[in-house]
Amino acid sequence: MNPTQQPRPARLAVGVVGAGRVGPALARALQQAGHRPVAVSGVSDASVRRAARMLPDVPLVPPAQVFELADLVLLTVPDDALPSLVEGLAETGAIRPGQLLVHTSGRYGTSVLDPARRAGALPLALHPAMTFTGTEVDVQRLAGCSFGVTAPQELRLAAEALVIEMGGEPEWIAEQNRPLYHAALALSANHLVTLVAQSMELLQMAGVEHPDRMLGPLLGAALDNALRSGDAALTGPVARGDAGTVAVHVSELRKHAPGTVAGYLAMARTTADRALAHGLLKPELAEDLLGVLADKDGDAR
pLDDT (tens digit, 9 = 90+) per residue, 152-163? Predict the structure, then answer.
């Protein structure tokens, strides 16, 4: 084999425990790489429908049967459910020695799989840094997607090969850094959805017929600038120190959408702090701005 090539894992029988938005998409990506989905487990009606749509002809079975049939098992359940699931599977003897066990939680490394490892499983933590829709588009979006990878030293090549086969790019995360890594992703991706949804609602209140069309180019440029330049990309009334404009914003939000005031103030304070620290906000303008952002009359904290 060419030493520059990544080793390809043997063709594997793949099982999924937890047919949420992530598991079926990863199984489909592995199928396209030549692996064979053999079983999927899901509980809710939505999970059953999603499994049937994304993995047609793959039988829906209980979790224990997934482990009987699969060489590689994807545990794609909510973070809080993962520890008890792993412990329960290990206690019931469902896990087979030599079985690859992959969870997709951003929060955990491989230590959460220790009960399975003691039963002979090979533990991997492969977290795709992407938001999932539960549709076919997710498989396409995996191309070039970064995966937060944590694995024992002896399994690093296998973990890397699986990520590459799914179209992703491995990014190694130390076990102790997984919670910080996950917090960073949640801070950006999850909160971005909330901010954009709030902005679209406000634009509709302001009479904008197509808020998505208005925001698309603006947010695309802002994201590109932020990724290229970091804090140097800050613009707008907070970074400029326009205290009067910010005061009007707060007043209008309180009048039309009071539920957005606390979020606006929190983000504006953080923006002001970063703009001041990076020399974008002039110190002589910061005092009046921070006075407005203190919001003594209406900040319900």
Answer: 999 999 999 999
At 45-76, the pLDDT tens digits run 888 899 999 999 999 999 999 999 999 999 99
The CA distance from 275 to 53, in Å, is 48
H or E element in which residue 64 lies: helix 63-69
pTM exceeds 0.85, yes or no = yes
Res 299: pLDDT = 44
Residue 90 has a CB neighbour count (10 Å cut-off) of 20
Number of H helices, E strands in the chain: 14, 7
- Per DSSP bridges, beta strands 36-41 and 13-17 are parallel
CA distance 176 to 159: 18
Q: Are residues 272 and 293 in contact, defined by beta-carbon separation less than 8 angstroms?
A: yes
As to burial, measured by CB atoms within 10 angstroms (0-12 exposed, 13-18 middle, 19+ buried), residue 196 is: middle
Task: Calculate mean pLDDT across residues 169-186.
Answer: 97
List, in order, residues 6 or more apart from 118 with CB less than 8 Å away. 90
